[in-house]
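Course assignment 3, question 2. Fill in each field.
Student: A.L.
Task: Predict the tertiary structure for the chain below.
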Amino acid sequence: MTPAGHGSDRRRRPARSGHPPPHSSPRVGPLAGSGREAPPLDVDALLDDRSTQIVVCCGSGGVGKTTTAAALALRAAERGRSVVVLTIDPARRLAQSLGLDALDNTPHTVDTGPAVKAAGGRLDAMMLDMKRTFDEVVVAHSSPDKARQILANPFYVALSSSFSGTQEYMAMEKLGQLHARGQRDGSWDLIVVDTPPSRSALDFLDAPEHLSSLLDGRFVKLLLAPARGPARLLSVGLNVVTGALTKVLGGQLLRDVQTFVAALDTVFGGFRQRAERTYALLQASQTAFVVVATPEPDALREAAYFVERLGHDAMPVAGLVLNRMVADLVPLLSADRARQAVDTLADNTDDVPGRAATRGLLVLHAARADARSRHLRLQDRFAAAHPGVATVGVPALAGDVHDVAGLRTIGELLGDVSAGRPG
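Answer field:
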């Protein structure tokens, strides 16, 4: 399925019967191979567009997604945007790359140097704390007495800390909170989201539906019946069922669950409505999904899954960032010519100064040229399968990115439109 392009105004909520199958710096250069051309991803135009309010970075683990999210946020701030970058990934890479000791559920201002101030921009960063976010929802949307009752409930403590799906629910909640605050007081005009490094990165898209299924399920309705219904509902049949549940769960646990569900019903109902609003926001034209990958078969298969899943859910895909491409440092010297030169030097018995070093450099260049050709073939294959997905390639750097200066370099490479333009 062809994904929705950035700027799509579709708002449909698709049926969920199943997901689709799975500069001084050198430029990466054009695509080559089958003749299929991917349009260039103009990152600067995306960030400069004030109608772009949310950028969501998604991709498999180990492809530089967190670095890409931080670099996009920094570049946007240096171009005058007020940005908050939110990571759902519990790893500490984002904090480290931004020069912060740690991140928590509260946005922290990043010391980005004079460029951001000169442009009138701002950069904050935070990491999702799902329990704290859940606690905030309870306190904000219930009376003080009910909030204390819920927060002290043992079942709630377990649910808010480790229950499957809680992270996804709270990611939708926090994203909605940040967007609402930005609209209300102008704290930020751009939110950059760094999702978890796996296919579950897009599970938060299913939060509204999963929550609806939970609230509308028979088990929850059964638990709520004694608390909601009149005394006549406590019939012999219901007592029999409750007795059976007591034997399975234990009397105290069942009472904790019943108390929790009854108290939290209105809070959950409000969350369901907010999550659905956030879902609609993610489908809107002011949101852009950026898929991040490396030029390796497994990473590009995952990227294809993300693109197809987002298209299935009518989410606007801005394009693909292809990290760690091999740059073409000596475009006039092919791998074959380099190997021929190595053979020529090997056959030459004259005592030529520097011959061994020259041969070593030629061998290294041939290996790099072969790797570059392989990367371009893989990039071209992806473009052939997804011709509407704009692409920008980012060359591999000599070392890891671990500070703001490194993020600035990545941002400059992302902003180089020619890096992903077909030749």
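Instructor remarks: The beta strands are 4-5, 54-58, 82-87, 108-109, 122-127, 190-194, 287-293, 316-325, 391-395. The longest helix spans residues 251-283.
Grade: pending
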